[in-house]
Specification:
- This protein has 230 residues and is mostly helical.
- It is built from eleven helices and no strands.
- Helix 2 packs across helix 10, helix 4 runs parallel beside helix 7 and helix 8 packs across helix 10.
- The longest helix is centred in the middle third of the chain and has 18 residues.
- It is globular and about 65 Å long.
- The relative contact order is 0.17.
Length: 230
Amino acid sequence: AELWQRIRAGRALPAAGGSAAARQARHVEWYRSNPAHLDRTFTRAALYLFDIVEAVERAGVTQEVALLPAVESAFRPDARSPAAADGLWQFIAPTARRFDLKQHLFIDERRHIRAATQAALRYLAELHARFDGDWLLALAAYTCGEGCIERAVAAARRRGLEGRFEDLRLNEETANYVPRLLALAQVVADPAAHGVALPPLRNAPYFAAVAITRDIDVDRAARLAGISEA
């Protein structure tokens, strides 16, 4: 079976309402109008997505989370934001340290596929518990921080609202973040209905992990393996 089938079968995010639903519809239309972006993103994802889907399943997390790097970094491990967030999952340095990702002269584990994925899943699980099992609030907090969302929820409740994601007054980036992920999941769920063709993804690992007992330069490893550094 294709990996897409596993992702579709594991989707569990609730629908957003109100202005968030309208934002989601606009993002769906953007994805429909930009198929080349989806093709580039998921062609890159073919290297990593099987490993991420496996980790998400082991963590018992909704499979939309496996699509989050498409929103965060377009599945580029070397992506770096203007706010100095780095890697597939776009960790800033303090949050990375909080979740035990090493950063020093020789390595930045924010770019380590498995280490960063495990850190992201631990962070999301913590946020999910903190916001009483509300995935949309947890995902919003992933991008702007727990305090940001807690303050927005409190403000919404003072206005007599329930404090759901669609009730919050957020900056544009955060207000669009969850609807963008929901829109991507909607397109992935039924690409043909949206006039989109997604690249095939094999339900098999792309890479194997090799245990090492000491550091080695990538160029030397490539020479010993008889392959190019690229």
